[in-house]
């Protein structure tokens, strides 16, 4: 018996979606604003809720109402740290919970980061938790942009990698990606191309219709009908839907978006003078209530007392004045203290730098001894234990790592130091701490990256022994 749902009808004939086939072949939904794209996703989720685990990435809060009728758990991403989101995603896979990751409480770039962290953690789950699940990503053009926008480059790489993993490699891990977008032209091609099923809604721009025609295998003049589709009608094609293009009218739903406005609401009926009074009554008082009170003015300084204090300080013996702080020794002491803290490697670079400055001020170094860039490299050196090496070995390793990005320098130096000292290659735990992650999958991808860049050569030996060669050192670790 097939696990099929009715998504809608074509001229009275039901149009079915085979959920088992969908898990293996993925789905792309496209439609301009107002085409009924969210309604389609809601119908798909409601009809399949009892068949398969569902994980919804919801940037606008459109799908939180599923929890009112079904067993979905709403996860407000604004209430969790990065580490908590990763742990939560691992539990979602372990316990097969259907969840809605609500992102509407975050700024756009924070939404993108939270989505990438959550998807990566789903992808990195242990093999014994690879249960089948539909992963629905609404507004996918935000999370897999075709071109760099205003977001930071590292954020764009992270989210594009997460979405590519979901669509390209997620099937073997039980993850079936369903991506929905308003603009095909804004969605990364390598993400859209991995879908084998399509539901194309109304779109007006030629560039989007051309891409839709290419994906559907239609002649471009035939794709003109996409422009004439009514709200709630989609052209469907794919092994889980139909072997030929069908025009389907999406069926009804039981839940609704909590933020949606349907239909027209009658305007208030009353004289214009009454409305003017409502708008202007006590307006000044309301503005005053919303305006915060100004801070109190500082008390005038006691000029005479201040002068006496300055004179007394200038007359103090030189031996009683504060000795100048040795910046090099201060940096070394602070770095040693921070690397002893087991939580330090897992903090963000900005949080680490603020902590570094606070420790320096506590030791009397009020002028920052290092800027942010220099601090990140010094911290990577300290985390790798380079302070315990002779000066010439330390200089040699830093010369090799000169062109490596700051966030990757720590784990590379750990590998290079092991090779230099002739020790066995560092294990995943040591590399994970230097990289600031708890995910074995991210460590494996890091080693793959180093190998592609020609920085290391990895040999996995039967029995679990790993050998790493650093070509620049010509020493096998």
From TrEMBL:
AAA+ ATPase domain span: 23-190
Q: Identify the domain of life.
A: Bacteria
- KW ATP-binding (keyword) present: yes
Q: Which Gene Ontology MF annotations are present?
A: ATP binding
Which is one Pfam family of this protein? Answer: DUF87
Keywords, A to Z? ATP-binding, Nucleotide-binding
Is Phosphoprotein a UniProt keyword of this protein? no
Q: Under which name does UniProt file this protein?
A: ATP-binding protein
What organism is the protein native to?
A: Croceicoccus ponticola
């Amino acid at each position: 018996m097939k696990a099929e749902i009715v998504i809608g009808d074509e001229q009275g004939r039901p149009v079915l979606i085979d959920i088992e086939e969908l898990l293996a072949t993925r789905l792309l939904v496209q439609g301009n604003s107002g085409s009924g794209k969210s309604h389609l996703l809601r119908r798909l989720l409601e009809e399949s809720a009892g068949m398969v685990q569902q994980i919804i990435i919801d940037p606008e809060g459109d799908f939180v109402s599923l929890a009112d009728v079904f067993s979905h758990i709403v996860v407000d991403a604004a209430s969790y740290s990065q580490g908590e989101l990763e742990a939560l995603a691992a539990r979602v896979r372990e316990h097969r919970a259907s969840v809605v990751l609500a992102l509407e409480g975050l700024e756009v770039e924070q939404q993108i980061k939270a989505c990438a962290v959550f998807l990566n953690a789903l992808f990195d789950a242990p093999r014994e938790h690879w249960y089948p699940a539909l992963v629905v990503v609404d507004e996918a053009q935000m999370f897999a942009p075709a071109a760099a926008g205003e977001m930071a480059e590292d954020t764009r790489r992270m989210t594009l990698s997460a979405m590519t993993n979901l669509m390209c490699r997620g099937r073997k891990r039980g993850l079936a990606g369903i991506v929905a977008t308003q603009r095909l032209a804004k969605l990364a091609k390598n993400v859209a191309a991995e879908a084998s099923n399509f539901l194309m809604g109304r779109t007006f721009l030629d560039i989007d219709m051309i891409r839709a025609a290419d994906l559907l295998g239609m002649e471009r003049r035939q794709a003109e009908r996409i422009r004439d589709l009514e709200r709630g009608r989609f052209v469907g094609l794919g092994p889980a839907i139909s072997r030929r293009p069908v025009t389907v009218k999406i069926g009804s739903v039981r839940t609704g978006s909590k933020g949606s406005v349907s239909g027209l609401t009658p305007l208030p009926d009353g004289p214009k003078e009454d409305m003017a009074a409502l708008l202007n009554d006590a307006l000044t008082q309301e503005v005053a209530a919303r305006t915060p009170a100004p801070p109190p003015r500082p008390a005038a300084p006691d000029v005479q007392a201040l002068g006496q204090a300055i004179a007394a300080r200038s007359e103090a013996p030189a031996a009683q004045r504060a000795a100048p702080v040795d910046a090099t020794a201060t940096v070394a002491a602070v770095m040693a203290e921070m690397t002893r803290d087991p939580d330090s490697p897992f903090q963000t670079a900005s949080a680490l730098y603020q902590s570094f400055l606070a420790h320096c001020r506590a030791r009397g170094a009020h002028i920052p001894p290092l800027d942010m860039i220099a601090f990140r490299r010094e911290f990577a050196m300290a985390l790798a234990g380079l302070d315990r090496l002779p000066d010439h070995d330390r200089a040699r390793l830093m010369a090799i790592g000169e062109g490596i990005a700051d966030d990757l320098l720590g784990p590379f130096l750990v590998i290079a130091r092991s090779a230099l000292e002739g020790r066995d290659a560092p294990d995943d735990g040591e590399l994970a701490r230097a990289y600031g992650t708890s995910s074995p999958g991210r460590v494996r991808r890091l080693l793959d990256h180093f190998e592609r860049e020609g920085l290391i050569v990895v040999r996995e030996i039967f029995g679990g022994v790993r050998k790493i060669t650093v070509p620049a050192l010509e020493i096998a670790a």
